[in-house]
Amino acid sequence: MADKPSRAVVLYGDGLVRFVDSSHIHLHSLASKASCGFLSLPIAPPSESEDERIVREFALLLDAYEAYHDTVRSTSLVTISERFMGMKAAIFTNNASLKSFGTKLGFSVFQIDALYKNSPAGAEPPVDFGASELLKLLGFQVGKTVETSQYDLVFVHVGAGEVNVEKDKATDDVGYLNALVGAITQIAQPGSEIGARLHLSVVTSYGKVSEKDDPNLSVSFRKDDENSYLSKLVPRQSYTMKGSQPRKDVRHHCPMLIAQWQYAVTRKDMAETFSFKDFKECGGNLVIPADRFLHEVAFKLWKAPKYGA
């Protein structure tokens, strides 16, 4: 546990995990030093549109699923600040539906290109400038930490085709996510003042899925695993439970992948690549429900008690 509250960046690659490959070296480098695992999701409602999926899954990350349903009936909801001890939060996204939902939850909402609007011509690469601007919002600049910051938490939502809106540009979006990870970790060097206070989460999802998706992308415990004498040594997490009640409609396949890193705070596991296989075999976080994610991050910011404590 840090001796001061952290400030957090969440890079959310919505529907992009399928496109991560060996060329995305910054994502793999992060995984090699981060604490890695999965966030489980419920089964999607039938006939859900892509925009509905985007907002619903983001709502789950915020533990605001009920609020997502209430948006039809209400123009104002309980805000992030009211739920998490005055936490100030912002989101960068190009998705109109997500902007509307974020505004109702009390987020400051920006277009992704707002990170680059003040970039001087011929200066540092745009992604490097954007990373610097992102960290400034959290009070990190010129290698130092300002004691008061504009925000405690900043999300960057990158969806398939959101950054580059031309058709079939999902791979470009993964490249952008990869470059942004590299730029942020370059600034937040281990042992630096920023590195000690910045909590970085990279979350990626599969987007729209079906029961016919690859059965090897399942996080459930297999029968052949149970027969192994080593299975008794493997801890199991109750991601299928909420309190004492079973969760309904848990989707056991195609979870979100998550890698979290903060120098000298998060634990390093044995994962070496940003991949489902490596996270399942070597990740340290196993599986938690997606609606517990923000509670875990808020704890690092001193804005919530420890989940499960």
Tell me about this structure.
With 309 residues, the chain is α/β, with parallel strands linked by helices. It has a single domain (7-300), classed as Alkaline Phosphatase, subunit A (3-Layer(aba) Sandwich), CATH 3.40.720. Helices cover 30% and strands 19% of the residues. It has 11 helices and 12 strands. It has helices spanning 25-33, 50-61, 65-70, 80-83, 96-104, 126-136, 170-187, 193-197, 223-226, 276-282, 293-300; strands at 7-14, 35-42, 89-92, 108-110, 140-141, 144-145, 153-159, 198-204, 241-242, 245-246, 250-261, 287-289. Strands 4-3-7-1-8-11-2-12 form an 8-stranded mixed β-sheet, sandwiched between helices. A hairpin with a 2-residue loop joins strand 5 (140-141) and strand 6. It is globular, with a radius of gyration of 19 Å. The model has no long low-confidence stretch (mean pLDDT 88).
Number of domains: 1
Q: Tally of extended strands?
A: 12
Mean pLDDT equals 88
**What's the CATH first level?**
Alpha Beta
The CATH architecture classification is 3-Layer(aba) Sandwich
CATH fold-level label: Alkaline Phosphatase, subunit A
CATH homologous superfamily title: Alkaline Phosphatase, subunit A
Radius of gyration, CA atoms, in whole angstroms: 19 Å
Structural class: alpha/beta
Major beta sheet summary: 8 strands, mixed
Choose one word for the global shape.
Answer: globular
Strand order of the largest sheet: 4-3-7-1-8-11-2-12
